[in-house]
Amino acid sequence: MVENFSNLFQWLIFLGVALVSIITSVMVITRKNPIHSALFLVMTFLCIAVLYLLLLNPFIAIVQVIVYAGAIVMLIVFVLMLLDLEEELRSGLKLLYSKVIGGVLAVFFFLAIAYAVSATALTGKMGTAPPDPMGATVKRVGEMLLTRYLFPFEIATILLVAAIVGAVVLSKKKI
């Protein structure tokens, strides 16, 4: 009886968090104010972290909150605050073509995802958690990150530094 109640509670948490995640994801792309979009992005990342907790993977959930909701979104907000978006809006820049291209690409990606989901048969088998999910996952991620995936990790670091330098260059006032 208690196990059924626990499964029902986890299912209700999953449905609630998944619904909030979908709503906030849509809000990210539909808001005109980029700061509001960044805040909805933080909420989406937090919902994804809760989903990782439901999957019994607390390390990935913590990394999700620290790296994405903390660092990346703050970098986005920092860049948005440095750029003068009002000047671009006043300049009369028309974004019709970009909206049409973005809409076509969104429909294309949605159809691709729908095809990928419908083309594979779902087995419905439950996975098993390791005896010590925190220790095993942290050790495994650390070993893989610093051995097998060291080069892509360093490339990502270089790209982030280049993005910061680019934001500073774009934010400099022209004399």
SSE blueprint and pairings:
Blueprint: H1 2-30, H2 34-54, H3 58-82, H4 85-90, H5 96-119, H6 133-146, H7 150-171
Protein architecture, described:
- By secondary structure, the chain is mainly alpha-helical.
- It has 7 helices and no strands.
- The protein is globular.
- It starts with a helix and ends with a helix.
- The model has no long low-confidence stretch (mean pLDDT 79).
Question: Which key features would you list for this structure?
Answer:
mainly alpha; single chain; 175 residues; 81% helix; 0% strand
Give a concise summary:
This protein is mainly alpha-helical and 175 residues long.
- Average pLDDT, to the nearest integer? 79
Instruction: Tell me the number of helical segments per DSSP (H or I, 4 or more residues long).
Output: 7
In whole angstroms, how far apart are the ends? 72 Å
How does the major sheet shape up? none
Parts with pLDDT < 50 across at least 5 consecutive residues: none
Series of H and E elements: HHHHHHH
Kindly report the oligomeric state of this protein: single chain
Number of strands: 0
Strand content: under 5%
- Whole-angstrom Rg: 21 Å
Helix fraction by DSSP (H/I, runs of at least 4) = over 70%
Choose one word for the global shape: globular
Q: What class would the helix/strand composition place it in? A: mainly alpha
